[in-house]
Fold these 2 entries.
Entry 1:
Amino acid sequence: MNHDDDTAQQNVARQSGPLDPLGSNSEIGRKLKQFYDGIVSDQVPDRFMDLLSQLEAADSSRKKD
Amino acid sequence: MSDGLQFKQDLLGAIPSLRAFGVSLTQNSDKADDLVQETLVKAWDKQSSFQPGTNLKAWLFTILRNEFYSQMRKRGREVQDSDGAMTARLAIHPSQHGSLDLEDFRTALEKLPEDQREAIILIGASGFSYEEAAEICDCAVGTIKSRVSRARTRLQDILKVSGEADYGPDAISSHVMGSGAGV
């Protein structure tokens, strides 16, 4: 039991150490991901696809000239 | 031609992350999308200066960030929204993404200074290393580390989250699942 406790403490120390201050073990870290991933998973507006197609078309017409 | 096509595909793939970073900076989804649009145009024009095989996402984030700060300098401080505007206009649907406590978190994030907010987003959400984030923000690695640390402390204060290090992963998730607004 003592041994298990020691291991658990070591894990906590490692996960909350300077290398991983915002890991999945952190409530702040998980909220941050939740906030960010919510936006990432939104559908990309059509305007961006249209824009890239326009840029591409402009490039290829320039090359033909 | 096929290079151009690949580049276009790569840009398309990066748009969701760019929008998320843009919203994090501007706190406004319309302004974020304008920023993403500027970023895509600039990236397209500068594509010959991108080194294939290097980190396209970091390169694009750098462009977006530079664009944000140059717009902010031009417009003064009005880029910052007044209270509540971000919450009202953000394209996140509460029914889809949850919970009151995400609203609380977003409000708390708005209260951070920009340099801390971008640092904690780049490290904690965008998945960049400290070295990459330092390059994107054009500062030292140690500066990023201290900004992330200050941002985290500030968020913990605002959200009254404490003693995170005392919880194991299971304790954290059950604690969070079980408690409404994280208070």
Entry 2:
Amino acid sequence: MSTSRTLSQKVWDNHVVKAEADGSVLLYIDLHLVHEVTSPQAFEGLRMSGRTVRRPDLTVATEDHNVPTENQHLPIPDEIGRKQVETLRANTSEFGITNYPMGHKNQGIVHVIGPELGLTLPGMTVVCGDSHTSTHGAFGALAFGIGTSEVEHVLATQTLPQPPQETMAITIDGELPEGATAKDVVLAVLARTGTSGGIGAIAEYRGSVIEGLSMEGRMTVCNMSIEWGAKAGLIAPDDTTFAYLEGRPHAPAGAAWDEAVDAWRALATDADAGFDREIVMDGSECVPHITWGTNPGQVAPIASNVPDPDSFESPEERDAAARALEYMGLTAGQAMRDINIDTVFIGSCTNSRIEDLRAAAQVAEGHSVAPGVRTLVVPGSGLVAEQAEAEGLDKIFRDAGFDWREPGCSMCLAMNPDKLAPGERSASTSNRNFEGRQGRGGRTHLVSPQVAAATAIVGHVATPEDLS
Amino acid sequence: MKPVRIVQGRAVPLDRSDVDTDQIIPSDWLKQVERTGFEKGLFSEWRDEADFVMNKEEHAGANILVAGPNFGTGSSREHAVWAIMQYGFEAVISPRFGPIFANNSTKNGLVCVQIDGEVVQAIMSAVETDPATEIVVDVERRRIEVPSIDVDEPFPMSDSVQHRFLEGLDDIGLTMQKADDISFFEAGRPAYMPSAGS
Ligand code: SF4
């Protein structure tokens, strides 16, 4: 048996309940996160077949996608959204699952609360009926999104059958340029790979740029793994990881902590282990980026111009770019900085953690939002909101004219009252710029929190440097 | 899940790449708690346009969807698969599928036929020229045939997925037979693993 293994292979091997002859395995799941949108039909399926939840103690639910970000103490005005939240409450109470409801300080976007409660730990397997489950890979956990049938499968058995996986390394060495953020790192990866470069593989982010990121930054990068086509994205746990986790509510303590850290250190990819594919990038590529199109791979540096569809090689890409420019109402050759913005959204599981809010507040401090620009600053969870308010960030935002909201997915997707109107253009710190993603006919530009804040102040696409 | 051996019929040509699951079923439609009724949401934003291909009379009743590359990327919503199937499609042909979508399809009996982009384009043109073009997706032989343009190509499908399609097997039932293995594994998990209770 070969002894050199990658991080993800080690985590995988540690969770094989049963290996089948064709290379597929039954994989044990350590943590199953549940939210109101992708779970109702799974619970219904359980009831219909007379099954129950095998490990309610390894299952945690929260309300995030549908919730309004104002007046959370009141019932949800939208009847169907309210029904979905009520259904989650009924299901979790019937099956004995912990649920963090609106207004609870532990409530928030499912991918924000797992890590901050210490429920997500290195070396674990984590699943959720949500493609951005890859976020948890920042801790060296094997974390991926699943469909509703699989949610039902995990509820019933705490396992998932999995085919053999390809591994991929994405190495970013060198240093980040001035003004670059973790969001720009992953947008630069997208610029390189497009939306399908990850081919469903389990990717490991490595190299000095990745090692230099904070946990929040690593979560931002891993969050968008699915956007470039990877199934999961992992980062080897190190001292930064351990410092973040120590003392969190569900993290081990005392002797168990020491034992865990020893085990976690051993997870790093062995020096001579090989990957099925490898991409190598340099930190200097990660300058501030912005998307100009209708998929996250249609992205370019802010200091550049909207590309000409004819500049793309394949006919597919040319067509897609032409369609995107039409939908986005942009002209080829237009400077990115000349794009006027109606709405700025700072939030989502990509960029709603305390560090993101601190960075945006630092840019906003002492400035005012440009006239006519609508803003939403939406903390990722009750705990993030509490911390931000303790640090006075809410006041900085409010003083600058930003709208400070209550936690939830908000304008990341058009399932709650925070939506774009047709033709309305946003600079958004979320992860998807698909047609209609933020509201029917809405036009989305994905950016970092710093760029979003600067853009709100100037009224067109801007970086913090443009403010001085 | 019902057994699926052969899908035979006419197709709708959706000549677009990167059709993500937000387009297949916009998020407004995800608020239901039932498992049915999603056909109304299928491509709902595009279907409002009169000249959208699915609105054309000559494609009414088609049970196969032909699409450009990167079909079903993006959000994990299984509602996308439900919407496609509840509308009446039994197979989707594309050069490349979003991995979660492809996996969700296997749980519901929707056949994802992944074949070379040039062959997909050939089928697309054939269907655009003659909407009555007959397509046969044979799960048992793992081949797709379009006799009128001499296409007879293999498509990938793992043995275990094929077995489940042919027999119409329920994944959960199969796993429950391994309950002893699961209990054995659970007994060996490290004590520091967190639990949500408390
Ligand atoms: S913030 Fe957006 S991407 Fe993240 S879980 Fe919510 S809806 Fe999904």
